[in-house]
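User: What would this chain look like folded?
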Amino acid sequence: MPKLLLGEISPGRPSRPLSHHLSLTSLASVGLIYLVVVANQVGASYLSKLTPVDQDITKEQSEECHLLHSAWNDLTKVWTLPVIHALSLKQPARFNELKRRIQNISATSLAERLNELDQRKVIERKVYPETPPRVEYALTKKGVELSVILGTLAEWVMKWDKPSNGTARANDEKVRAAVRSK
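Assistant: Here's the prediction, encoded as structure tokens.
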């Protein structure tokens, strides 16, 4: 495995206020890791294409970083993952059914997450022409694929981040239940 060198802060990179861009590169031609540090927030993106050490990233690679960073920010918003998980258990589901499945979520937060996931095409919202109106939510093909990835991530967390002293925290029990239900 090649050694990694920590790059210097790159003032030439486009930046948002209060942000610094760092890059990690190896001595050989390997992929570039682009680390964005913003006040109280860290996002890391990697470039899948090989980039020589002395070459800056291409426009395509920069767009790849921005897409990954945008998706990561959307997925890590409060309540987004529980909404996806609740739909992966049984779908389609109506609004109040989802609200019952996700403990302590407010109606406002649920509505916001459902709208955001619908805009990203992770879920679909189907409105039936009935009185009163009936609306159901279901994962799209994109959402089902994301749910599988999140299940794999949950298994990874359970493998590597279990409490070492044998006492399980309440959150660990929730994750275990989520993994078992898949």
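Residues 31 and 53 are 9 Å apart (CA to CA). If you want, I can go into more detail on any region.
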